[in-house]
User: Fold these one by one.
Assistant:
Number 1:
Amino acid sequence: MAISTLLMLIFLPFVLSAFTENVCFPGPVEDVSCIQKASNGKFCYYPTYPGTDVSCTQYPQFSSVMAAHLAQGHSIAYYGPDNVFIGDASWPYPPDAGIIYLCGSGTINGAYLSFCSRPIGDNVIDSGEYCIVGLPMKHVDDGCYDPSLAIVNASATPSLVNGITQAPSATAHGPVTTVTVTAQSSSRKASSPGTILIIGILIFVYHAALV
């Protein structure tokens, strides 16, 4: 009994894990994005180009789950049919899963891409119907990327995704735009002529009072 229990504990992490190896979307090499293990030991999503859309126009059935995904902190996450979070990248995909959504979010060259699709098993990204937007999550708790990075190639104004205000989207493969932030100087501007005149009058009155 002790030996069998020990073996179960040894192999448990490999059994209870949806992503145990690097997985990529099928397609042309230049467009393949992947879920793979990062240097921090977490499985993260790595897009190859930034997203361009700000809503699930082509497949609106993913709009609600996309909004739920962008509002929470796991860059790779599974959701139930009611769009409630049920697990991160380590969630084991059951054989009788029913309606399950897989969403991922990542960054590329300072811009963002987030997707939601229907998974079909562990270590698999389905290339069927899916929604892709160029929006970051509100916060990222697994350290996979920084959602507050300056967005280059920004072309869209802040948009609403199912009631959630998001950052601008990015233009895929567009020219890189340098984002310059000018800090406001802490020094005061030069005094106006009116201020100088008032100071002069006060000095004159002061000297007149001394005479």
Note: The chain has three helices and ten strands.
Number 2:
Amino acid sequence: MANEACPPESDEWVGLLEDTRDPDEGWSLLVCRYICKACSLISTIFPMVCEGLFDEARRHYHSLLEQVSALEHECLRWMAQAAPEELAPSSHTHFFWNIWRSARLKLHNLFFMLANLVLHTPMHRISQSAEIFDSFMLEATKDRCLAIVATAAQETIDSIPVSLGGRSPEFATATYASWFEGMSQISPLSHVYTTRTVPKHLRNTARLALLAIGKERGILQAFKTRPGAVQYAAEAAVGISLDDTMENVTEVT
């Protein structure tokens, strides 16, 4: 998932799909809608936390928080009202669950850093007329983001099939289907492995699963994931461990 907004036509495309959808496509279309909105938010937040754009972060913080909260509420409300068969485990829903978890994890990881950036803005960068932020509210938002990141990461780990060392049922048996299942796991597991706000034991589990995908399924793309490729502003990364001892998965034996 790139740090860019989806094409401007995306909402129209999803709208057309919703108008003609089958009864069992509600969840996949909700995920599409979530990703479109999440990518738009991510594309706005990402340069702020990378470049240390304090003024922009403080000016847009409340609006971004409102949009992130509304997006989260919309998705969770739909899930609470959905018929059981719409969310029943299958290879189809399994795939879309992990896409949603990855988007959710990335969005709330970045919002954690945005709250950090606002909280730790140097005093000389704050004008006398600037809004005063409540540090307790910012810390509460950070805690909430970390909880969501941990939940999304744990659910992704729980989706690892038995053949790759996990506990999830196998949805693929034929060789080609098994290969596709391995491919579909690489992106969500890579998000878990490379995101430093994810609890370390979950990151390590994701790393081992990526290694298994590379070795046992023969999918070399799984070996190419490594953390630390993006540099964030120091203020955005406060409280995030940077002494990472987990190297590229190809170095695991």
Note: The radius of gyration is 19 Å.
Number 3:
Amino acid sequence: MDQTAASLNKSSTVTAEAVSLIDEIAKASQEQAESTAQINKGVEQISAVVQNNAATAEESAAASEELTAQSLTMQELLSRFQLRESEPATLSDSVHAEVLISPAQENIPTSIGGKY
């Protein structure tokens, strides 16, 4: 009988240890699942930021192309104008000097009765 009681006592102790280990494994698994969920949430946030940055980069590229086109148009338009050659102006002369531009002056409408 003593052997049976000792054997049952040992079996009970081993079972309690197994239950304790299983409980620890369950808790660790739960913590791991929570950590994985947090990592997934972080990856989703990073993905959203990357997508936003990609969209912003595309918009910037489109704006850059538009500015390049406008710059080329502006250069083409400005190439039609030529400054008349004149004597070098002093600072006081340049402040009050009239800008002489051709052929733009020919296209300036004259005032009739205060209206253009």
Note: The radius of gyration is 42 Å.
Number 4:
Amino acid sequence: MSEFVKLRVLPYNKEIVVEKNKNLLQTLISSGINIYASCGGRGTCGKCKIKILEGKYTTESSQFISEEEKRQGIVLACKTLPVSDIIVELLSQLNFIEEIQQHIFLH
């Protein structure tokens, strides 16, 4: 039988009941929150960064997360599973906007 936890997503302040140990990228997308991940959630682009503000989780290490980001609670949504109620802040939208701006200014 599946266990569930609560996921609160900032800045939307949206609360979602999710299956425990289901990756956060899939959870966010299936809940209607579009999060940028050009690799489709395989962990190869580093674009789906989120910040864990509260709660317990498991995550895989990634070349895309610096030591400083780890200390700040930043993880890849595609490689992170909640194990308790959790609060996350979306960062990828900002990264996506910055990437678009860089592309525009470079071309």
Note: The first strand starts at residue 4 and ends at 10.
